[in-house]
Amino acid sequence: MYGGMWLALRTLSGPGWVRGSSPAVLKRLRDSAVVQPGFLSAEEEETLSRELEPELRRRRYEFDHWDSAIHGFRETEKSRWSEASRTILRRVQETAFGPGQTLLPSVHVLDLEPRGYIKPHVDSIKFCGATIAGLSLLSPSVMRLVHAQEPGEWLELLLEPGSLYILRDSARYDYSHEILRDEESFFGERRVPRGRRISVICRSLPKGMRPGEPALPPSAC
To answer: How many CB atoms lie within 10 A of CB 114?
Structure first.
């Protein structure tokens, strides 16, 4: 468990999906770190999982990432999708990105094995722009954000299967973020057992990059 105080940003049915170290942090990041539970229907989650599985199955899980940020993963960049999946991704774009934002043409797909995790890191502005939006498939997980200069300031997001998370602006560049390993996977007092987790991540174009330019290696978003 992280920190001594747990505060819900919003209370809906169930435990809520965002917790933080203080009301000030919750207020500051209210629009920068967002979770939309139930964004996908069970059928939509199955559509994405079924389309991704053959491509992911051809890859082995790795335990050394190029920037040491991920453990127990396989990943790919995907630009060709079925019409059903494109419909889902268009809805992500309409929900998470502003009308003036251009998206990277490929979608980052990250597959974490049950023991896999993402270490704390701050995204590089070279790899993706001010906004990322990720769909969570298969397993629940907890994402933790910690201020890079003030480690006592933190936020945690409960990412259930079928949920959409959005990180913008300050949440992207002023806070590190990580996906907790199974033995650390708690949301307040609630144990969140980790299984295999797939995330489907859309990213805005980095500042200064023009559409069509070669993509740089994906960040561990």
So the answer is: 14
- Please tell me the distance from the alpha carbon of residue 171 to that of residue 113, in angstroms, as a whole number: 26
Question: Tokens 């990943």, residue?
Answer: 75
Q: In the predicted model, is pLDDT for residue 155 greater than 80?
A: yes
Distances (CA, A) of 147 to 9, 130, 164, 180: 17, 17, 22, 16
The answer to whether 5 and 21 have CB atoms below 8 angstroms apart is yes
Q: pLDDT at residue 45 above 50?
A: yes
Q: What is the CA radius of gyration of the chain?
A: 16
Do 141 and 194 form a contact (C-beta atoms < 8 A)?
yes
Q: Which residues contact 15 (CB under 8 A, 6 or more apart)?
A: 8, 158, 187, 188, 190
Helical H segments across the chain, by residue range:
23-28, 42-57, 83-96, 170-173
Q: How far is CA 97 from CA 24, 167, 211, in A?
A: 25, 10, 16
Share of the chain above pLDDT 70, in %: 84
For residue 177 the two structure tokens come to: 């973020």
Instruction: Provide the residue type at 84 as one letter.
Output: A
